[in-house]
Amino acid sequence: MILASAELWAAATNCYVIAPERGGHAVIVDAPPDVDAVSGLLAAHDLVPVALLVTHGHVDHSGGVAGITERTGVSAYLHPDDDYLVADPAAQLRSLFGFVPPGVEAFAPPERYIDLVHGQRLAFAGFEFEVRHTPGHTPGHCIFVVEREGLVFSGDQLFAGAIGRSDLPGGDFRTLMASMRTQVMTLEDDMRVLPGHGPETTIGRERRVNPFILEYLDI
Fold this sequence. Notes:
This protein is an alpha/beta fold.
């Protein structure tokens, strides 16, 4: 198996590609607004993408989707509860920075996303991705569980030693922790957590040392 990643754009967002072997088909998880870098990650392993899974609609995870889909022809998948976020990336950036940086028009969504549905299982490139809807960071946030390989792409739900922000528009702390309790911490301890930012971790490690899980998981 090939599992490659790169920290891209201003937010150092992790973009992942997963493939059974070099030169084969691959799945992209999250597309920061750096299309050339995402393409380079694929080219480094001679991979051909067959799907693009987006954990949530924040621009640091979705801003490159339109460019990738246009360049490769792949379909992109996003939960419909985040449609409003990808529809207006300028509003997102205005809420974060108080102004709209130049070039935001390049972050516009593709012509169409395919809707993610909680509980569905998507088969791409020889892998099965279980979709778990985990609202709280955003209304449509999802994680992707690849059980056979012991992987969970956690987006901005769970990080090494931290959790996703819930103070941005559409976020809610109690909802995030409910998602953590019912959809994330039900996974086995040895599952590798591949987050949207920062280093990988495991479910077991976060169960033992993550201060948010230790203090707030039962609220």
